[in-house]
């Protein structure tokens, strides 16, 4: 499966900004592990609507600089509303890192984006190039060995309607295990300071908010490989299965996330 960036809309970008609290909270944990310092230059790759970059800007202070890049214009449009001196946003992605000079950043972070990157090894080599010696890489992503339980519900719903799951029909097409991510980071020249699996858990009251989040966080790729005429039936099945998970507190989102911190030694 090739990730499609042209499926995003202004409405999906606005939904993501509204519904991405879980990813934002996980991103703050990643920032904490990176130990970002006042005055540093930080590049946020796959910044989305800029919530985490805005948070990082508080950590680096007025003497630092934060740049968020994302390949989705509608998300950058929202992010730019958060811009201020020392915090800026540009359209771009992991394939566009050649625009940056060698050793030009202190920290590069990728929160909830690494599983969307197809050419991971190439991206990591470029990140190593643009980091200062002693600079840090931070990755927050899912874990292939401990998949999000909602993914199984979605695949089963597709199979029940279509008889099979179309090849490549998955929310996170390039998801890796903790060991696979660690190996890639090491091969790119980093020393691995931390590879940590953390449990995320929260509750969502409305099933429609979950469905909207699936669509918004995948920038339209959710169910993209399901024929349009079949999508309503698949959505009904997903909604039914999600409702079965409802508790007195709402529908629990419970899944493992990987935090990976690497350092460029020289």
Automatic annotation (TrEMBL):
One of its GO terms (molecular function) is demethylmenaquinone methyltransferase activity. InterPro entries: Methyltranfer_dom, SAM-dependent_MTases_sf. Its EC number is 2.1.1.163. The keyword Transferase applies. Keywords: Methyltransferase, Transferase. Pfam families: Methyltransf_31. GO terms for biological process: methylation. Residues 38-170 form the Methyltransferase domain. The keyword ATP-binding does not apply. Gene3D superfamilies: Vaccinia Virus protein VP39 (3.40.50.150). It is an enzyme of class 2 (transferase). PANTHER family: TRANS-ACONITATE 2-METHYLTRANSFERASE, TRANS-ACONITATE 2-METHYLTRANSFERASE-RELATED. This is Demethylmenaquinone methyltransferase.
